[in-house]
Design a protein that fits this description.
Layout (H helix, E strand, L loop, with lengths): L5 E6 L3 H11 L4 E7 L3 H11 L3 E3 L2 H6 L5 E4 L6 H10 L3 E4 L7 H13 L4 E3 L2 H4 L1 H11 L6 E9 L19 H17 L4 E8 L5 E9 L5 E7 L8 E5 L2 E5 L8 E6 L5 E4 L11 H12 L10 H18 L18
Parallel strand pairs: 1-2, 1-4, 2-3, 4-5, 5-6, 7-10
Antiparallel strand pairs: 7-11, 8-9, 9-10, 11-12, 12-13, 13-14
Helix pairs in contact: 4-5, 5-10, 8-10
């Protein structure tokens, strides 16, 4: 792709779509050419807000728009398979919000569609594109704390959320795990890869979604990860990784940190802070920039957020759901059963 503006389509008009669009508007090499919603009124209001010329009241029109280089799918995760699949089949490249899909089967179908149509596909795991998180990963990979022994990460919101809220709605893939728990699980995967065993416990709502979930992930290397998510209690949203020769702590907002502290045996703690030039810690622009870099390079997936990694995370999320007893409407019996042991 030539060095020119990448033309984006936005599918859905909720809060995350608005946040992403706001960051795209500030990128000189990005252009939002169209937005789609199942409501023409919602699409038109979003288009007016962000100066977008085309507002579609259906997904099919957006998918068919040949002027779009890549579509950002920002629906609830229950609709990711349908929305992203529609765009891929129509020949569009896709950046799809996380959790990637409801389950591994759906994720595998999207990856297969991307390969069949020779299109770019990436999960919008913006944490992996964050410069400070990338620095942390490089330090760990470079042996700064020795061999990784444990990883800890939590993400909890205080709530309370009413039963009608999307986080409590099984039909929308509700519950703490897919909305919040995907971050702690993905953080553990980033540093240790896919676990060999999964043990989990959850507290379920009357609707059958998880209000809070804790999981212990283990690897044959002897490493362990403790991950927790909740929609009934606000946590510190912290993370740490401990190795044989030190530790790294992220004191708050681990998935979009503004700083972390490296503790190495026999040395004073070292603090690493975000570069102000990288923008706000809540910015989604880093993942947008990675998508545009990959498209210009002719890549079909991002090395920062590889599809194999997204599938591995979905396998782990499936395994956790199987252990806590959460199944979403329309899932076949045993569909969420992962191959991970435990």
């Amino acid at each position: 792709m030539a060095e020119q503006s990448v033309r984006w389509g936005i599918l859905a008009t909720g809060g995350i779509a608005a946040a992403f669009a706001a960051d795209l508007v500030d990128l000189p090499d990005a252009e939002i050419v169209a937005v789609a919603s199942r409501s023409q009124e919602s699409a038109r209001a979003f288009a007016e807000r962000f100066g977008v010329t085309r507002a579609y009241g259906d997904w099919e029109s957006l998918a068919a728009d040949a002027d779009i280089d890549v579509v950002y799918v920002a629906t609830p995760h229950s609709a990711h398979r349908a929305a992203a699949g529609l765009c891929l089949a129509a020949g569009r490249n896709v950046l799809c919000e996380k959790a990637f899909t409801l389950n591994l089967r759906e994720a595998e179908e999207l990856v297969a569609l991307a390969k069949e149509h020779d299109r770019f596909l990436m999960e919008a795991m913006w944490m992996y594109c964050n410069p400070l998180v990338r620095r942390l990963k490089a330090l760990v990979a470079g042996g700064a704390i020795g061999e990784v022994r444990t990883v800890q990460a939590d993400f909890g919101l205080a709530g309370p959320f009413p039963p009608a809220h999307r986080l409590r709605n099984p039909a929308l893939g509700g519950g703490a795990l897919l909305d919040l728990g995907v971050y702690p699980v993905s953080f553990a995967h980033l540093l240790l890869g896919e676990p060999d065993e999964v043990v989990a416990r959850g507290v379920l709502s009357d609707e059958g979604v998880d209000l809070q979930t804790g999981a212990l992930l283990s690897w044959e290397s002897g490493a362990l990860a403790s991950v927790h998510c909740s929609i009934v209690g606000g946590t510190g949203v912290t993370a740490s990784v401990t190795g044989s020769r030190g530790r790294i702590d992220i004191p708050s907002g681990f998935f979009h940190p503004d700083r972390f502290v490296l503790h190495r045996d026999g040395r004073a703690p070292e603090e690493f802070t975000a570069d102000p030039a990288d923008g706000l810690r809540t910015s989604l622009r880093h993942e947008a920039e990675e998508v545009m870099r990959a498209l210009r390079a002719g890549e079909k997936e991002s090395p920062l957020v590889p599809l194999a990694g997204s599938l591995a995370v979905m396998r782990t999320l499936d395994a956790i759901r199987e252990r806590i007893g959460v199944r979403y409407p329309g899932e076949a019996l045993g569909e969420a059963v992962a191959t991970v042991t435990g």
